[in-house]
Specification:
glycosyltransferase activity, glycoprotein, Spore Coat Polysaccharide Biosynthesis Protein SpsA, Chain A, single chain, 38% helix, 14 helices, 11% strand
């Protein structure tokens, strides 16, 4: 018995999603044993699409270029709402936030100028602290050192922060081992100027740089580049454009949006490493992406101080309680850039007590 055209058409229509899945599956999930599952990838893509669509000025309208002629009206509505640009603090952690009492002091009295978001590895033991950190946990996935899961976690933090508050302008990624080196007011004024001039961030966002370390002459650069295979990164990432830098950064909103919208470079950096001794994707992806996309819009240096003297197994120096002193804070602040360092890492949880003792008279007394 012959099959009617209607039945054939219906069969093709019903099979279309399955055909599309198998057609695009190699692009979405081209290798076995990837650090991120297909489900995690699809969840992230949906999140990033929502954040990209919601990217807006604080007036609530879709973002346009910085030269938009319609901005004065938007700025008037912004001024009426008295919504100054904010800094989104993105805590990426796989353990408790031991220094939350110190950060509480740092944030105290500045609730209109910041937001907090926490990505905590759900497979780790994590007890969200009270106070300003309460109910700041975003939907999180498992993370693993020397794998693209750390990139994915940072991208989730950026996307959630963009979705949550249109006033978020800077996005500062820190870890549970980071501590502030200055008062919040000092940092905010250094980035934006006073409360009035801070509105310039909405008028001329292109004038503000992202603070991220971007290096092209580090030892073992080629070994890092070829950690997934000698030619795997081609053609999207030629070796000449591969960069390294610090995992922790402070990005402007335009660069945060660029990160969550990227699929081209992510398709390479998400691949598993064959040589894990040289593979630190979180230190490669962000510097490479921003260097390829907007090198002049980045500082090429970080605002987070790290001491690599005596580093071991890829970890920097770990400060102990007996090292904490006013002299150390002043030393950690010193920088060769236009800014002194705002944050420092890496500290043991036992450093909290001596840090709290000098918080008011040293750390937050600029």
């Amino acid at each position: 018995m012959s099959t009617s055209p209607f039945v054939l058409a219906l069969s093709l229509l019903l099979s279309l999603p399955l055909l599309l899945f198998f057609f695009f599956f190699p692009t979405i999930y081209p290798h076995k044993n990837l650090p991120l599952s297909l489900r995690d990838e699809l969840d992230d893509r949906a999140l990033f699409r929502r954040a990209s669509a919601a990217r807006a000025t604080p007036s609530g309208h879709a973002a346009t270029s910085s030269s938009s002629r319609s901005f004065p009206a938007k700025f008037a509505r912004l001024g009426a709402r008295n919504s100054r640009p904010k800094i989104a603090f993105l805590f990426l952690t796989n353990s408790d936030l031991s220094f939350s009492p110190l950060w509480e002091k740092f944030f105290s009295g500045h609730s209109r100028f910041y937001n907090i978001y926490i990505h905590a590895d759900p497979s780790s033991k994590f007890a969200p602290p009270d106070g300003v950190f309460r109910k700041r946990l975003i939907p999180s996935k498992k993370t693993e050192r020397a794998s693209p899961t750390l990139i994915a976690a940072a991208r989730r933090l950026l996307a959630d922060a963009i979705l949550d508050d249109p006033a978020n302008f800077y996005f500062a990624l820190v870890s549970q081992h980071c501590v502030p080196l200055h008062s919040f007011r000092y940092m905010y004024d250094a980035l934006f100027g006073n409360s009035i001039s801070a509105f310039n961030a909405y008028i001329n966002p292109g004038e503000y740089k992202s603070y991220i370390e971007i290096l092209s002459d580090e030892p073992n650069l080629y070994e890092r580049y070829a950690a997934r295979g000698e030619h795997v990164m081609l053609p999207e990432v030629p070796f000449e454009q591969f960069r390294v830098g610090s995992q922790f950064f402070m990005l402007t909103k335009r660069h945060a949006s660029l990160v969550i919208e990227d699929e081209k470079l992510w398709s390479k950096f998400r691949l598993p490493c064959l040589d894990k001794e040289c593979c630190y994707p979180e230190e490669h992806y962000f510097p490479t992406l921003l260097s390829m996309s907007d090198p002049k819009g980045c500082s090429h240096y970080t605002l987070t101080r790290v001491n690599w003297t005596g580093s071991f197994d890829g970890h920097p120096h770990l400060y102990q309680p007996e090292e904490i002193s006013p002299a150390l804070v002043r030393e950690l602040r010193q920088s060769e850039s236009n800014y002194s360092y705002f944050f420092a890492r890496k500290f043991t949880p036992e450093c909290l007590e001596p840090l709290m003792k000098i918080a008011d008279n040293v750390i937050f007394k600029d």
